[in-house]
Write a structure and sequence with these properties.
The protein is α+β, with helices and mostly antiparallel strands. 22% of the residues lie in helices and 42% in strands.
């Protein structure tokens, strides 16, 4: 491998690791069924408001609603939700009975202050602008094989005034030899890896399509309150 190839390989590894770390850090806290906040009423009373909650909307879909971050969306109910301060991470389970070597499979939604910007990458598989409902998203996807590991990432961004909504999907399939697979099982695992990633990528895009803005809970206007 020449110096140029080594440099490109190194950059790809760093970019993939950065994306996975960002997604993982967004949901490092323990899963919470509901996040609550309190707001003050005009008469001095306080009201408990659910700013984050998940409800089932069908046999296979759940809706995540976060009033504090101002959005809701629908996702497969078997995805495991992990709450973060700036968004939510959804870990996608892989059937252990299925022959595959998928090591990472997760989705995140991050609400960031400022202008949307994708990570700098040297190779982009696909780049486009898509419209889902009333929202226009920028999208990139990346697919690389580095040191036997197959990386796939897709990201959508949505700018709303001074706020950026960033949607990320990351999949990493390990080298079949790391699980002791040999012969035809290697081919089976590779085919299953591709099928799992493709199905999750499709579900991820459906989740982005379901994204809608919601109103934030409003506190008391302090400019109208006389000091006591």
């Amino acid at each position: 491998m020449n110096k140029s190839s080594k440099l490109i390989t190194g950059v790809l590894i760093v970019v993939a690791v950065i994306i996975i770390i960002v997604i993982s850090m967004s949901g490092h806290s323990s899963p919470l069924p509901t996040d609550l906040t309190t707001i003050s009423g005009d008469n001095g009373s306080t009201t408990v408001v659910a700013v984050s909650e998940t409800t089932k909307v069908s046999s296979s879909l759940s809706e995540y609603h976060n009033a504090e971050l101002g959005f809701s969306l629908k996702y497969p109910s078997n995805w495991e939700r992990e709450e973060g301060n700036a968004g939510v991470t959804l870990v996608v389970p892989v059937d252990p009975a299925q022959t595959s070597t998928v090591g990472t499979l997760q989705v995140s939604v991050q609400v960031l202050s400022g202008t949307c910007a994708f990570p700098p990458v040297t190779t982009v598989k696909d780049r486009s602008t898509v419209k889902f409902g009333n929202n226009s998203f920028n999208m990139i996807s990346m697919s690389n094989t580095v040191q036997g590991r197959v990386y796939f990432n897709r990201m959508y961004s949505l700018q709303q005034s001074e706020i950026c909504y960033m949607f990320s999907f990351a999949s990493v399939a390990l080298n079949p030899s790391t699980k002791g697979l040999t012969g035809s099982n290697i081919t089976v695992a590779q085919n299953n890896n591709k099928a799992i990633t493709t199905a999750t990528d499709s579900a991820f895009t459906d989740m982005v399509k379901s994204f809608v803005f919601v109103a934030n809970p409003q506190g008391q206007d302090e400019t109208t309150v006389a000091p006591k």
